[in-house]
Amino acid sequence: MSHLLSKARRLAVAAAATVLFWGASASAATDVRVGFIPVVGAGQLFVIDGEGWARDAGLNLKLTQFESGPAMISALASGTLDAYYGGIGPIMVASARGIEVKVYAATAIEEMTFVGRADFAAQPQAATAAGFKAFSESQGRPLKIATQPPGSVPDTVLRYWLQNVIKADPAAYQITAMGIEATQQALLAGAVDAATIREPTLTVVLARDPKSKLLAVGGEMLPNQPGSVLALTGAFVKANEQAAKTIVSLHDRATTLLKDEPNRAAKHLQSGLGKGLTDLATFEKAVVSPASKFVADPMVIKDATKVMQDFQLKAGTLEKAADLNVLFDDSFYRAAAAAR
């Protein structure tokens, strides 16, 4: 009897210890408020969440979707976000305004594409200054182009390409700013003639509109074009340095999975971005498209970011230059890469 009681006591103690352990683990979980834009270029976030890596590492991700990077600036400024998955452009603006935020990892390069439709896309040299002029003259109006708000990567890359690469006559085109989903809808409805878009919008538009055509890829618009990034606020890093390091390490791991096991990754992207409206096959194509070049090393995009920033300063869409040596911090990424 004493043996049974002793065994029962040991089991009770073990059970209590287990409850205390898991209870302590749950209470020790670090909340991470993450803002993101709904693009495949932010795919690492959905892999980290979908694979359960964040939960296993004691991180409680609280995700909030925004329609563009600039829309996240006020959230960063007010301290309601800890992490940012979006374009580098708004982060430069935020940093220049004194908001304490740094880029700790890249997510992808050359995400941006230029897509045309109908009569414009059907021209043999549509994506040239001559093509823009010919369309404008034949239609009696400028080419209508949709992109995201000023200061965003889509807007900046579009204007850089138009002015510095193909050197189109400004009178031949008209740019309209709108959100990511609105851009897709405008293209499919024929409300615009062209747009700068990223995945999965690119795959969706090309599949649904047989008259649409991919006219320029990111590398043609701006070589090594910086796309989305993982940025963290200074307040979060100071209060939770180990959690910040863990996020960057998981991001690096997710980048590898996106490249090595795209179909596995696609399931998580569909769950995070599909909203039950976009099928898995679309995401499987989007993850391996020419517009999906996943990278984690933030230094890969630093030089091209300077090109973008110099252009924005000249164009007047950026009031003050951000110190890129301060904005980019690769220390957590280097530690993660060394530990692979």
TrEMBL record:
Pfam families: NMT1_2
Nucleotide-binding found in the keyword field: no
Span of the signal peptide: 1-28
Entry protein name: Nitrate ABC transporter substrate-binding protein
Top-level taxonomic group: Bacteria
Keywords, sorted A to Z: Signal
PANTHER family: ALIPHATIC SULFONATES-BINDING PROTEIN-RELATED
